[in-house]
Amino acid sequence: MTTKEPFDIDDRYVQSKKDIYYSLLAFQCAVPDGLSGAPKYFVYTKLKDQYIFGVAKFCGLKNITKETYKQVAYHQTQGGRTQRAISRILGDWIPYAKIDKKIQNAFEKWISSHITYNYLENAAFLPVFLDETDMSDLIDSSIDSIKSNKAKISKEDFDYLLSLKKSIGDAGEEIAYQYEVNRLEQKGTVQRTYLENIAAGYDLYSEHESKERFIEVKSSLSSHPDEIKFYLSENESKVLEEKGENGFIYFVNITEGHIYEIQNPIKKIKENGSKKEINTYQITLKK
């Protein structure tokens, strides 16, 4: 018999817009399981030209994962409480009929790709967008400080910081995948390599008319006007260098809703970047 992890539902309801946003990112890894139970309340945001949606029952909880939601939270959570928690922060729920037609179309396309949904007339929505300030730099600096023994933090808080980074990374990989499918206009092949082989050195593989791309995805919430920063493992660096002009880094800036394509990234790093070794390489590139 599996013992469920301790979970105090009263401590998990969202307290800020940032909590909702991070849970919305985490929800992208919970589809389609998170759509069970005929949900009627949704939050959404826009990344580049793409809307992403999340169920209120999931997104009304902070520091939540797919596994925790399925095992514990789904059965303990009352939908009304998560709806009220979100509404206190974002305002009154907007009926489906009153949201913009573009959002209606995006939602119908999204949900119909996962489940049969017959509750549009009863559905309600709230948008969530982050301000320019965010926690990405704080997360990175906190983890760097811990690794350097410059700061002390509880294991629980450290695990939470790591879970936020994972949510950002997982969302970035999904956004990059959809971006690549759209770039090829659904005429080529796009494979999620990271699901099959985490040691491949890249996350996505695409091919169209004999043109291959080996794509490593990096994600961030921070926005710097002149440069981008990301971490690159020794294996990722080696593989991307071997792929040459067919190697790419897709840097997904979630706050800006923008993807920077970096072709032959190791060559560009050598020409126009800096590298700081900390087990992995911290990369800085001029935009």
Give keywords.
disordered N terminus, four-stranded mixed β-sheet, Trna Endonuclease, Chain: A, domain 1, alpha+beta, 2 domains, five-stranded mixed β-sheet, 287 residues, globular, 12 strands, 39% helix
Summarize the structure.
This protein has 287 residues and is an alpha+beta fold. It contains 10 helices and 12 strands. The strands form 3 sheets. It has a 5-stranded mixed β-sheet.
Describe it.
This protein has 287 residues and is α+β, with helices and mostly antiparallel strands. It folds into two domains: 114 residues, no CATH class; 123 residues, Trna Endonuclease, Chain: A, domain 1 (3-Layer(aba) Sandwich). Helices cover 39% and strands 24% of the residues. The chain is built from ten helices and twelve strands. A five-stranded mixed β-sheet has the order 5-6-7-9-10. A hairpin with a 2-residue loop joins strand 1 and strand 2. Helix 6 packs across helix 7. The relative contact order is 0.11. The N terminus is likely disordered. It comes from [Actinobacillus] rossii. This is Protein NO VEIN C-terminal domain-containing protein.
